[in-house]
Amino acid sequence: MIVFPAIDLKGGQVVRLAEGDMARATVYGDDPAAQAMRFAEAGARHLHVVDLDGSFAGRAENRAAVEAIVSTFPGHVQLGGGIRAREAVAGWFDLGVSRVVMGTAALTNPQFVKDMAAEFPGGIVVAVDARDGMVATEGWARASDVPVRDLARRFEDAGVASLLFTDIGRDGLLKGVNIDATLDLARRVDLPVIASGGVRGLDDIHVLSLHAKEGIEGVITGRALYDGRLDLAAALAMAERAVA
């Protein structure tokens, strides 16, 4: 199972939001590349990076920070945030991003996402962000009437790499991962699932890793790392041991 340390970008700074609310941002640093290297030194081989400003604007707003991270981090960078055009997708892959996460486009233009998955095999992750079981888009600012499972199933045969499932109500709040909802999704769709939202410590990593063979590909963690509640090296070791 992959542990993805998260770097969320707002105005070029490293931040974490509470429940996806831009007005509830905590700043953790102003050097995203240095933060990426700290994660690498702890043993991380994957990063999850989000251009939060881009999520609302629908275009890249923290490009310089992303470029600095990609040029510095020696592993794989997974990037999301406002990526809704082919030129943007191709541009990020040309820059060296390993996987691109698409959320709003998956709901509003699913054929486009399928086309990108076909053009860039193994490179597209579909974000399935849930608020009370329904998909939310545009930086989580808008709720839809589409159930999470329905959106996920649209991409089962599309060639996407995985689904990124976030329980918005837990994101950035250290409430613990919504294990039940994450497992329910993984068991109902024929795609790997990455868990996100609410990681508070090693217990979350341990429980998720026990279900890796049921389709849990990885877990994203942010605030718990920044607040010192979760040791990244320990989390990485636990994830590796549990699936060995």
Concise description?
The protein has 244 residues and is α/β, with parallel strands linked by helices. 38% of the residues lie in helices and 30% in strands.
Layout: helices, strands, pairs:
Layout lengths: L1 E9 L2 E6 L2 E9 L2 H10 L4 E6 H6 L5 H10 L3 E5 L5 H10 L3 E4 L1 H5 L1 H10 L4 E8 L2 E4 L4 E6 H6 L8 E6 L11 H10 L4 E4 L5 H9 L5 E6 L1 H4 L5 H12 L1
Parallel strand pairs: 1-4, 1-12, 4-5, 5-6, 6-7, 7-10, 10-11, 11-12
Antiparallel strand pairs: 1-2, 2-3, 7-8, 8-9
Helix pairs in contact: 1-3, 9-11
Contiguous helical run count: 11
**Weakly predicted, low-confidence segments:** none
Sheet having the most strands: 8 strands, parallel, barrel
Number of domains as seen in the coordinates: 1
Say which CATH homologous superfamily is assigned: Aldolase class I
Give the overall shape, derived from the CA principal axes: globular
**Mean pLDDT value:** 89
Strand content: 25-35%
Helix content: 25-40%
Distance between the termini: 10 Å
Q: Tell me the total number of β-strands.
A: 12
Helix and strand sequence: EEEHEHHEHEHHEEEHEHEHEHH
CATH class: Alpha Beta
**Which fold name corresponds to the CATH topology?**
TIM Barrel
What strand order characterises the main sheet? 1-4-5-6-7-10-11-12
Structure class: alpha/beta
The CATH architecture term is Alpha-Beta Barrel
